[in-house]
Model the fold of this input.
Amino acid sequence: MKFLYTARGKYDQNNFDTFTWNQYKEWSGIHHLEELVSLDGMLNEVLVEPDYDNEDDWNFIHISENLQTGFFTELDFVCKRLSKTENYNLLAVVIEPAEPCEKIILPDYEFIGYDLLDQDFSISALTNCGGYFNETFLPSELNKKGLLNNYNKAYYIKEQLFKNNPEEHHADTNVIAVWRHEIIGY
Done:
């Protein structure tokens, strides 16, 4: 299993820009959210700033089919290039895991669920489509962080999203397992 890393901005009742927390919960229909810990770059911005002119930095940027994913191959690189020093989420992820991750122990991290990001690794079909995919899953099926708790459910929803919406770009997704560091970032 290949672990990748990222740091994302927090989005909750204390951390928002122009779209308030209550406005987001109303729009998304995810009324039970305590904090959104999504891999969606519009909702939880990437806080790692590589130096794209430095050839060495490209060794740490994870690329998938010629697309930057917002994930990085080394935790030390993420910490070195972090644009914030507090109030963020330090995450470990696995793209398209081949086995359930719910019980995989990663020291100092807590498994928090699965996200479904589009093929561009930019938009979460779970949290940034405002109920558009209600024929496939309901907001009430997400946990308190806006993720899916179960491996089989994540892959089932991935399959059904594309089946029910074959022409919709954001319905063609990657399943991504997410762990959050229990100390760093708070």
About this structure: The chain has three helices and six strands. The first helix runs from residue 21 to 28.
